[in-house]
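Q: Hi! Curious about what Lipase looks like structurally. Here's the sequence.
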Amino acid sequence: MLFYTVALLLLVGAQGNTHELDIQNLIDLSSAEDSADPEDAHLLVPDLIEKYGYTVEVHNIITSDGYNLTLHRIPHGIDQTYSEGRPIAYVQHGLLCSSADWVVPGPEKGLAYILADAGYDVWMGNARGNRYSRKHNTLDPDDDAKEFWDFSWHEIAVIDVPEMIDFVLNKTGQSKLFHIGHSQGTTTFYIMCSERPEYNDKIIAHFSLAPIAYMKHMTSPLLKLISVAEGGIEFLLGLIGMHEFMPTDGFLHNISKPWCDESVLQPVCTNTLFVLCGFNKNQMNNTLLPIILGHTPAGAATKQLLHYAQEIKSGFFRQYDHGLIGNQKKYGSIFPPNYKLKKVVAPVYLFYSRNDWLSAEVDVNRLYTELGNSQAKMLVADPKWNHLDYMWGIDAPHLVYNKVISLMEQLLL
Ligand SMILES: *[C@@H]1O[C@H](CO)[C@@H](O)[C@H](O)[C@H]1NC(C)=O
Ligand SMILES: *[C@@H]1O[C@H](CO)[C@@H](O)[C@H](O)[C@H]1NC(C)=O
Ligand SMILES: *[C@@H]1O[C@H](CO)[C@@H](O)[C@H](O)[C@H]1NC(C)=O
Ligand SMILES: *[C@@H]1O[C@H](CO)[C@@H](O)[C@H](O)[C@H]1NC(C)=O
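A: Let's find out. The predicted structure is below.
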């Protein structure tokens, strides 16, 4: 067994990583001038939003299969009031993330605040399994782990997101909204619109930050390891969590070792999200790091990771692979069915970059040509921009959010 880990780690290491991994001399948390308030690491999203003077609402929905999901809403900007017909911006987080990621940087920096101040009614979804949606009518996430965590992003896409969207539209009396997704929040958008095409009509436009559909060319060492180990699955599950995704610190540390300096970066080196996606010190506001670490990882099912791992291996964008017999039973075919990107006919704008471990340019280009209604793809004007910078990058408002908002404004004219 030990031999197997070492062999896997060597294999992954040998495949190398050409990205900039300049994370030495990183953090002197005490030297910052504008320090974030350490309390923010522990506040829940509604308390955080309220603390900074914004109106917040919490809504729960029970999905058709019993998950209790939480939506967070900022109905208007600071010093504004809500009026009917205010355009809706629905924001869907990525893997291991939550609504927290859009408010953690604070007013004038976090996407949720910027959207609210720009005139939008902001709704943030929380997918099943994250800390705000780790709840079910009849299943307990710990005592009934096998049943509770038996989902991938397919279920998030065909159940959670459409049911949250219906709730938002019903609550506001509107018929359409803007959808902004990050990472897995883009995957779930494409799947929703292809598997339940009637939802295309409910979307004014969708903005993909770090689009994820095809995964063949991604370079994340952790995901690569999982995809390589998919054959020895039982062994791997012991390391990353059988049902709920919870890799041990020791395992994560081993994977991040090639690029992490353990003396300075211990928390980053063992944080699942950073190990998965990498770390870009140029865009990281050091005083925010402890706050970010307080809010992520926010929880996910192991199956979500395994499903992505299958995509890396197969090169397809398709439903979960249950093996020959399982597929025959579930889909009536040997292979899982592909998602039909042509059916995504809502207008889509893609934002991507060249130092993103998960969203590789080649894969984005393929997605762009296959989607039913691609409007534009925009390369972020920073060669080192990485997957997580869309949420917390110092220049995210300037390089990404303002562009999204100006496109939205044009569409409202
Ligand atoms: C870093 O974060 C702190 C706390 O939110 C904020 O006051 C400061 O302006 C941020 N710095 C940059 C460069 O964004
Ligand atoms: C869903 O969860 C929320 C928050 O914990 C709780 O207040 C609510 O009662 C739950 N809804 C149902 C129907 O169980
Ligand atoms: C919202 O849903 C309720 C209950 O399902 C329904 O009665 C109502 O007409 C809906 N409102 C709108 C604006 O769609
Ligand atoms: C980490 O790697 C060391 C060898 O380099 C190995 O002994 C240990 O079992 C590994 N730990 C995990 C959790 O994979």
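A: A fun detail: The chain has a mean pLDDT of 90.
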